[in-house]
Design a protein that fits this description.
Elements: E1 6-8, E2 21-23, E3 28-30, E4 37-39, H1 43-50, H2 55-65, E5 69-72, E6 77-81, H3 86-100, E7 111-118, E8 121-128, E9 134-136, H4 143-149, H5 165-169, H6 193-204, H7 214-220, H8 223-234, H9 257-268, H10 276-289, H11 296-306, H12 311-325, H13 329-346, H14 354-363, H15 369-376, H16 386-395, H17 397-414
Antiparallel strand pairs: 1-2, 3-4, 4-6, 5-6, 7-8, 8-9
Length: 415
């Protein structure tokens, strides 16, 4: 599975719904004898997820191992001399993340490195965009000399349509707030006419038997009925009621109500013996028990827990639960965030299917035109890294084009 190559940036956090993710570092041994070396094929992708130049962690490995390093940034080739085990380098990467990425105060990786000059002295500071704290790094580490000689490039804001965008620069990218608007996605060069036709045709075939009546929701959630159904579904998993009213919950806490909901759904979705409606009601009841049935983050978790590479068949199957939980623009954005993570991180092979996925959600009235249009034209790092965010939005262009044309046709008809 593609998801096997994605890990939490903080690998001490055992929570698959943790927001901050990165590719698992890979290695390749080349050469023999004195010329043997360890190439890190995906160092650029790992560094991009950390919002650091790939030269920094590579040089960090060299400092820790007492080995020479070399970089070919144009071809994204990063090398540590000698033969080094992948697991050893992953452990060292954890050390780099702790020392040069995570905020010392809140342990959030959304930081930017800043060099402060005080007379002749220079300090390297981690500027956290999550909690606002500025915490220093250990200036005794050898890497600091390299950073001072090769400072992070300050990203200039306000440029339009910059091509690869500031995420591709791979440096100091923590400076944007999660919802900050970035460069609009550039227009695709390929013809979308055929795909647009396919989207329209396949929309007609969507199964619209996804709604549960008010009576069904209330009947199934009556104490006696729910007790019987959930007992069969839970498989012994105890529901813990959380009453802290925390809208976001802790990304670091594997026992947060959101993680409990996600794990319960994943473990229960294949055990309902074909009775999908009962499962959906039980899932909603579980969210109620946890006190998060109205929270937008619950929608994100449900999307991550329910959808797989068979998402086009699963959307109509699970549509009733999302119809019940998606109640505002914020909830719609969380649903889109779940799709971003699904196709951008877990199943990149689904990228070509993004227009069909959006059409399926749109046809079920889970997404409004204004929300999906705004989402599709502004890159954000709220749910994934910016480069992944950009790829997903790029893939959505045929659907956005269809929406625009459908809107134009509607305007022409009213005149």
């Amino acid at each position: 599975m593609a998801s096997a190559g994605i890990v939490n940036i903080r690998r001490d956090v055992d929570d698959k719904f943790y927001r901050y993710r990165m590719p698992l570092l890979t290695t390749k041994i080349e050469g023999k004898g004195n010329g043997i070396k360890t190439v890190i094929p995906n160092m650029a992708d790992v560094a991009r997820a950390l919002s650091r130049p790939p030269t920094y962690p590579t040089k960090f490995f060299g400092c820790e191992l007492g080995a020479q390093t070399s970089f070919d940034e144009k071809n994204e080739r990063y090398i540590v001399n000698g033969a080094h085990d992948a697991n050893r380098l992953r452990e060292l990467l954890d050390g780099f993340i702790d020392k040069f990425v995570l905020c010392k105060s809140c342990k959030n990786p959304e930081t930017e490195l800043i060099i402060l000059k005080q007379g002749r002295a220079e300090d390297i500071i981690r500027d956290c965009k999550a909690c606002g704290e500025r915490t220093g790094v250990d200036m005794r580490h050898k890497l600091t000399t390299f950073i001072l000689k090769n400072p992070p490039v300050k990203i200039k804001k306000g440029k339009k349509k910059t091509g690869t965008g500031d995420a591709a620069a791979g440096v100091g990218g923590g400076g944007d707030s999660p919802d900050a608007e970035a460069s609009p996605v550039e227009n695709g060069a390929e013809s979308d006419d055929e795909l647009t036709k396919k989207i329209k045709a396949e929309a007609k075939d969507l199964n619209d038997d996804t709604t549960l009546t008010k009576e069904e929701w209330s009947a199934d959630t009556s104490p006696e009925a729910v007790k019987q159904r959930i007992k069969a579904l839970e498989g012994g998993i105890a529901g813990v009621s959380i009453a802290n009213g925390d809208d976001e919950g802790s990304d670091d806490d594997a026992n947060s109500p959101y993680s409990q909901l996600g794990k319960w759904v994943e473990e229960s979705k294949d055990n309902h013996e074909g009775d999908t409606k009962t499962f959906l009601v039980a899932a909603y009841k579980k969210a109620e028990e946890l006190g998060i049935e109205k929270k937008h983050k619950s929608v994100l978790v449900l999307a991550q827990a329910l959808f797989t590479d068979d998402v086009l068949n699963e959307i109509p199957k699970y549509g009733a639960l999302f119809a019940k939980t998606v109640t505002s623009e914020k909830h719609q954005k969380a649903l889109l965030g779940g799709i971003e993570r699904l196709v951008g991180l877990s199943h990149p092979d689904l990228l070509p299917a993004v227009p069909k996925i959006l059409m399926a959600l749109y046809q079920l009235d889970l997404l409004e035109e204004e929300v999906v249009t705004q989402w599709g034209t502004h890159v954000s790092k709220k749910y994934t890294d910016k480069e992944t965010s950009k790829k997903v939005r790029k893939a959505s262009e045929p659907f956005l084009k269809w929406l625009e044309e459908a809107d134009d046709d509607s305007d022409d008809g009213e005149q």
